[in-house]
Amino acid sequence: MTRGATAPPARxxxxxxxxADRATVARRTSVYVYEVPVRLWHWINAAAIIVLCVTGYLxxxxxxxxxxxxxxxxxxxxxxxxxxxxxxxxxxxxxxxRIYWAFVGNHHSKQMFMLPVWKRSWxxxxxxxVKWYAFLERTPKKYVGHNPLAQIAMxxxxxxxxxxxxxxxxALYAEGAGAGTVLHTIAAPFLAWIGNSxxxxxxxxxxxxxxxxxxxxxxxxxxxxxxxxxxSMVSTMISGTRTFKDDRPD
Length: 250
What we know:
Layout: H1 19-27, E1 30-32, H2 36-60, H3 76-104, H4 120-133, H5 148-177, H6 182-194, H7 197-228, H8 236-239, E2 241-243
Antiparallel strand pairs: 1-2
Helix pairs in contact: 2-3, 2-7, 3-5, 5-6, 5-7
């Protein structure tokens, strides 16, 4: 902040900002937002998802080049399946750890798991962000955590989407483990409800494509916001600190 600057008014930081955040911005142009566990989870989870998407695609649509030798002399698909299962385990453990940190971390760590749909001001900011991303709004707002539109995307594609992929993925794994195993016993009601193994494979594979679409949008939006918005974006998920590019009050 420039010398002699006063604390920004209540409208200066939109949405998720608390009085503590506003007080911090009044002293300096950076706010510590994402704690170490959140940042570690983000990057490990991103790596796990990439491995899952690549191996999942190959499992669902194996190219002819995979037939490189007699089955007794190769283990290519065994390695691919192992990588898929290992990445799934890492993603699942990380997701439960992320849920835990939502309870013990700062208030920004909870954004991914809840949408304040009861707030009229939140919906107004959602509409503002829709216009901003559509290049119909000239001036973006300042946000300490996720902006409302990003929060919606994170909730549906990550919280809901990852839950869906974990449940369907482990149901498929339980099917392979066979009847009588602990995992199959746990998954049996879900498998019975789905009824058809091919349907289960298809919806799990379809879920992968939704995750791929989200990743492309997420990367585009992060780079776009880093360039065009009034705060840092990509570097924030590395350092944990959100840096604002100006000290204008609104």
